[in-house]
């Protein structure tokens, strides 16, 4: 059997879960996370497929220098991952934290 405090907590949780602002936050955060994941997956798989099936291109050097296209695309993949991480952290610390703080104020 639930005591009064547990019942109140469940009621509060249900109220927050039904809140349109909370549902909007979850939808926006989930959508943004999937978009970022798909972007990283596309870049990573492009690099892997180029390495597997475009060996001649990846091994060729850029304008006669000693740097190959494989090195360029490899570095790009790593830099892209760091950039996506920075974008996500910026959004999480800005927009998502603001929405969460607003939900916390409304819940009190």
Structural notes for this entry:
- The protein is mostly helical and 108 residues long.
- The protein has one domain (18-107).
- It has 4 helices and no strands.
- The chain has helices spanning 4-18, 20-53, 55-59, 69-107.
- Helix 2 (20-53) packs antiparallel against helix 4.
- It is elongated.
- The chain crosses the membrane at residues 32-54, 66-89.
- Keywords: Membrane, Transmembrane, Transmembrane helix.
Helix/strand structural class: mainly alpha
Radius of gyration over alpha carbons?
23 Å
Share of helical residues: over 70%
Tell me the number of structural domains: 1
**Biggest sheet record:** none
Instruction: Return the string of H and E elements.
Output: HHHH
How many beta-strand runs? Answer: 0
Number of helices in the DSSP assignment: 4
Shape: elongated
Name the beta content range: under 5%
Distance between the termini: 26 Å
Organism: Lichenibacterium minor
Transmembrane segments: 32-54, 66-89
Protein name: DUF485 domain-containing protein
Pfam family, one: DUF485
